[in-house]
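Sync notes, pocket subgroup
Present: LS, DG
LS reminded everyone that the earlier model was apo-only. Rerun requested with thymidine-5'-diphosphate included. Inputs:
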Amino acid sequence: MKLLVCGGAGFIGSTFVRQRVEAGDEVVVLDKLTYAGRRENLQDVEHVFVHGAIEDPEAVAGAMAGVGAVVNFAAETHVDRSIAEPDAFVRTHAVGTFVLLEAARERGLRYLQVSTDEVYGSIEEGSFTEESPLRPSSPYSATKTGADLLVQSYAHTYDMPAVICRGSNNYGPRQYPEKLIPLIVLNAIHGDPLPVYGDGMQVRNWIHARDFSSAIAHVLQHGVPGEVYNAGGPDECPNIDVVRRVIELTGRDESLIEYVTDRPGHDRRYSLSSDKVRALGWEPQVRFDEGLAETVDWFRDNAWWWEPIRSGAYREYYARQYGRELSA
Ligand code: NAD
Ligand code: TYD
């Protein structure tokens, strides 16, 4: 199968591309290369690369030539950035998804939209199913929800073979260090403070990016058109415990922990039920303890990957967001 993977130069997209190429698929990647998209993420993987935006109909038409299916990872993905500057979130999620859907519909292509548990909002107890109401709370999750609704409308109205796969919080190699785990790992390695929002008791349902990628491939192949499938990880963990585990894995001590001002509108807990995708035959393979240790090792062994980030524009982002400089 020849696949078009939009946003394939990002963290999860590149993990998915790596897996599909190993499985024998041909892959075309369309990516705008925002701060989060990097050719380095795919430097060891055979693929055709098209530099362009999903909201650009010409770039999309060129990239879609000859493919059998489209998987859309392309997104602005950081909640804190969506609070500070929501514009790009609206453009990419609303206009970009629309342009992709139109082009895929015209060509009769199967389409998979990669989405997030954040569309359901926060849950105190129990887990969200695909039937749970959509109650997004940030500009990130609200615009992702809008994209999901547009995809569902195309499946319903035009009988388009489109499916949605919603993942819980991902972690693993090549995640951009604005997200909790890579930020904490790199700060711990450097002896920088570890910023914990609020009381640190927010809970996330962690899934390794390889497991989310295999769920997406599974839903692309076996999912029923028009349906949504949740793919949650096997473990949940409060943020402060994630930070403590990273401290142990890097041989640091708790004096590095720094409680900082909470994120506005911060969701307390995410949790997904994955029964529906499990019924299609998918199972996550990586437990959080094991995946976190592997991730810490990867960051320790791959300074070539993060050194240009930590010495570039990321430093300005970090100073703005956390009100202090990173060490060199
Ligand atoms: P990422 O930020 O690492 O990568 C996003 C990629 O999309 C980058 O390569 C970027 O250059 C590209 N991109 C952004 N805007 C684009 C545009 N307009 N046109 C073309 N390319 C564009 O993100 P990620 O963490 O790999 O997330 C990928 C997808 O998975 C997103 O749709 C996200 O909502 C979803 N998701 C992420 C998580 C998570 O924990 N990271 C969890 C569930 C779902
Ligand atoms: P993040 O990785 O941004 O993912 P999301 O907001 O999509 O869940 O954050 C994960 C959790 O960690 C979230 O509760 C916010 C918290 N967090 C911190 O406590 N400190 C940080 O520096 C960051 C980036 C996140």
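DG: DSSP finds twelve helices and twelve strands in the chain.
LS: Residues 87-106 form the longest helix (20 residues).
Action: DG to write up.
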